[in-house]
Design brief:
The chain is an all-alpha fold. It has two domains: about 5-45, no CATH class; about 55-145. The chain contains six helices and no strands. Helix 1 crosses helix 3, helix 2 (about 20-30) packs across helix 3 and helix 5 runs antiparallel to helix 6. The radius of gyration is 39 Å and the shape is elongated.
Length: about 150
C-alpha cells in the first residue's frame, strides 16, 4: 500500500507526529514509487522564477553602471598587484643599497685606518664614520618601512 498525497504533504511540512513520521520514513525507504511521488510534490511546491527574470538580468548586466563596477574591480586588483610589486622591488633595491653601502663603509674604514696610520687626522675619519652610520640607519629604517608597508 502506498502513502497518500495528504500524508506526504504533512511530511513535507513537518506536521506528522513521531509514530506517523517513523512509518512514513520506513515506507519511503522501501517504496520507490512513493519516494518518486514525494519528489514530484517537492518539485511542484518549489518557487519558479518569473520568465522575464533572465532577460532583466542580462539587460542589467550590459548597463553602464554595472560595467563600470566590473571594470573598477578588475582595475583595483591590477592596482593592488602593481603596488605589491612596487613594494617588493623597493625592498630588493633597499637591500642591495644596504649591501653596497656596507661594503663601501668597510672599504672607507680600511682606507681611513690606513690614512690614520700615515697621518693623525682623526676628525675627518670620525665624521665619515658617523655620516656613513647615519646613512646605514636611514636605509635600514627605509627598508623596514617598505617591508612593513609603512607601518611601524
Amino acid at each position: 500500500m502506498h502513502i497518500d498525497d495528504k500524508v506526504l504533504k504533512k511530511f513535507q511540512k513537518g506536521t506528522l507526529d513521531s509514530k506517523e513520521l517513523i512509518e512514513v520514513l520506513k515506507h519511503l525507504d522501501t517504496c520507490s514509487f512513493c519516494t518518486d511521488r514525494w519528489m514530484e510534490l517537492e518539485n511542484e511546491e518549489m518557487i519558479q522564477a518569473p520568465s522575464y527574470l533572465k532577460e532583466d538580468i542580462l539587460k542589467r548586466v550590459h548597463k553602464a553602471d554595472v560595467q563600470v563596477n566590473i571594470h573598477i574591480k578588475k582595475t583595483s586588483k591590477k592596482t593592488e598587484l602593481f603596488f605589491y610589486s612596487l613594494k617588493t622591488t623597493a625592498a630588493v633595491l633597499g637591500a642591495l643599497i644596504l649591501l653596497i653601502s656596507i661594503s663601501y663603509v668597510n672599504t672607507t674604514e680600511r682606507l681611513l685606518d690606513y690614512k690614520d696610520k700615515a697621518s693623525p687626522s682623526v676628525s675627518i675619519s670620525e665624521k665619515l664614520n658617523e655620516k656613513s652610520n647615519e646613512i646605514v640607519d636611514i636605509m635600514t629604517y627605509f627598508s623596514n618601512q617598505i617591508i612593513n608597508g609603512g607601518k611601524n
